[in-house]
Design goal:
D-Amino Acid Oxidase, Chain A, domain 2, 26% strand, FAD/NAD(P)-binding domain, 13 helices
Length: 396
């Protein structure tokens, strides 16, 4: 007997959300609290989504949204509030004090923990989330009655009939590809270096993040908790992770962040990989009743810690538009979603580019001297420090 599909009775909702990562679930919770129904679908398993190692730093406005949708309790209990960051050049480490400069702070709290908090909140509210789906297709996005079809994890074909589709499924997901001519007006920059990122079971060696310029390449010390450190090294994009033994990684990190009287703690490395560095902004963030959120519409290099935070901005803008659309029959904010979101997207894209180009070396001595001059000027100039603080904290 040949293969066959079992067709289930169609599902109906107001908003179909593709992608159950942080942006998809934040949007779902935001809408639910405003009395708007949604159904979320995700091609990965819940366990996979909860274990993805991604961002770990939250802007003020991201913390505010998490608090607003009722998922900030554990963040405030277990997260780490940071007043600023350290910037370093060989022999010098300078503290940029955000709280003193502008009165705002950032929080360190891993995306894996945010995901667990969102999952728990969705479970408690009884929201519909379908994991391990496949063959996701978007239909009639130009109409007032779009739909999404997919195969559930048992191989049954399902249909979601809705009024709006939110594509929260990342750069490679089906949502962005469903927009006609989406590449027109898109921008991309691939940087000539990558990050080697490691997670280590060792207490952080610093109270706040360290961004270190070094002639051998950039290095960064971050953390996920009081027992887990997250560290990065600038490497060639063609490098192979097999070339980097644990000893070589710790030696390079120690050399690039060396400072008299300070020592880098070492420990068991539990994960290591090489991350590409690129910026991308889609030419379109909306088409008909389809709206792109987060990485589906834009990505930035991680230097400025803006990826997840930019997605939170999208959730806020789209959420406000959907509330007006469904509750007031007013499509003004929804129609303006792309313009509103892109103002912030280009701001964070510029800031990420600025931090990246200021701190990563090219091997050219002229470039090195320009970077050192810029950093030394920043160390002495309060106006530049204030600008950095406002962008880093997300006060726009």
């Amino acid at each position: 007997m040949g293969n066959f599909l079992v067709f289930s009775e169609g599902m109906k909702t107001q908003v179909a959300i593709i992608g159950a990562g942080p942006s998809g679930l934040m949007l779902s919770r935001y809408l639910a609290l405003k009395g708007i129904d949604s159904i979320v679908i995700e091609d990965r398993s819940r366990e996979y989504v909860e274990s993805r190692i991604r961002a770990g730093l939250l802007e003020t406005q991201s913390v505010n949204l998490l608090q607003e949708i009722g998922v900030a309790d554990r963040l405030f209990q277990e997260g780490m509030e940071h007043d600023g960051i350290y910037l370093q050049i060989p022999g010098e480490r300078h503290h940029i004090d955000f709280k003193d400069l502008i009165g705002y702070t950032v929080w360190v709290y891993g995306q894996t923990e945010i995901q667990k908090d969102l999952d728990a909140a969705c479970d408690k509210a009884g929201q519909q989330i379908h994991y391990e789906v496949s063959d996701v297709e978007l239909h009639n996005i130009d109409s007032e009655a779009p739909s999404v079809t997919f195969l559930d994890k048992d191989g049954n074909k399902q249909t979601i009939e809705c009024a709006v589709i939110a594509g929260c499924d990342g750069f490679w997901g089906p949502s962005r590809k469903a927009i006609p001519g989406v590449e027109v007006g898109s921008f991309e920059r691939v940087y000539p270096f990558s990050w080697l990122g490691v997670m280590a079971n060792v207490a952080p060696s610093t109270d706040e993040l360290i961004y270190a310029w070094h002639p051998d390449g950039f290095a960064m010390h971050s953390m996920r908790s009081d027992k887990v450190s997250r560290l990065y090294l600038q490497v060639d994009p063609q490098d192979d992770i097999a070339n980097w033994s644990d000893d070589r990684i710790w030696t390079a990190l120690s050399d690039r962040m060396a400072l008299s009287g300070w020592e880098l703690k070492t420990g068991e490395i539990t994960e290591k990989n090489i991350l590409a560095m690129r910026s991308f902004v889609s030419g379109k963030l909306q088409h008909g009743r389809l709206f792109l959120v987060g990485d589906a519409g834009h990505t930035v290099p991680p230097t400025g810690a803006k990826g997840l935070n930019a997605a939170v901005n999208d959730v806020r803008f789209l959420g406000e538009g959907l509330v007006d659309f469904f509750k007031k029959n007013d499509s003004g904010l929804l129609n303006a979603y792309s313009d509103r979101a892109k103002e912030t997207i280009w701001r964070v894209t510029h800031f990420s580019w600025w931090m990246t180009t200021m701190l990563h070396t090219s091997g050219n001595e002229f470039d090195n001297q320009l970077q050192l001059s810029q950093l030394r000027h920043l160390f002495k100039n309060k106006a530049l420090q204030t600008n950095l603080a406002e962008n880093y904290v997300g006060i726009r």
